[in-house]
Amino acid sequence: MSNEYLNKTEEQQFEDAKNWFKENGTPILVAIILASAASFGWNFWKNHQLQTAQQTSATYQSVMETYLQDPSKNQPLVEKFIVDNKDSSYATFAEFETAKQAVEKGDFVAAKTALQSAVKSSDPTLQTIARFRLAQIDYQLKAYDEALATLAQIQDPSWQVRKQVLSGDILVAKGDIDAAKSAYESAKANAQLQEQMLIDVRLNNL
């Protein structure tokens, strides 16, 4: 701060401050308003997102309770929920439940349709689960190449053992024993002790 400013009277300093604010006050006021609006907007958006998630969760619970009382009769209710909430993880959960119920009825084609939709989830974890289950369904449908192609898209390291074991099962079904053995051995190298025992059973049965 300069000596010239320190030597001014309080009145002069006040006049300087008024003049400075007159020249610069409006931009500052606008900046404050914009900052406040941005903060308000962010908080409003967060609260809106939270309320939406809570409402969707509650609706999901209600729909699932009704659906499971009579899956065949209440399937349209689940389908409507999925359409209405297509961008949420709850829609994927509903698709998983639809696939599960179809599998229990032995309707693997319907299960495949539900899982093909679930694979489109924006959540990477849900995508991985959907792909693995879809590969299991294709295995049941004897669509072996499709199943292997789907498994190849799973990159999450935590799924590698399950992926390799299922790949081995599919390759056995295809009659490619050497490739199946390689898949099982790769799985065993990274598996826990209990998993290794189950893999050994598969290897011994080749």
UniProtKB/TrEMBL annotation:
UniProt entry tagged with the keyword Cytoplasm: no
UniProt entry tagged with the keyword Transferase: no
Transmembrane parts of this sequence: 28-45
Subcellular location: Cell membrane
Coiled-coil region list: none
Record key words, sorted: Cell membrane, Chaperone, Membrane, Transmembrane, Transmembrane helix
Official protein name in the record: Ancillary SecYEG translocon subunit
Lineage: Bacteria, Pseudomonadati, Pseudomonadota, Gammaproteobacteria, Pasteurellales
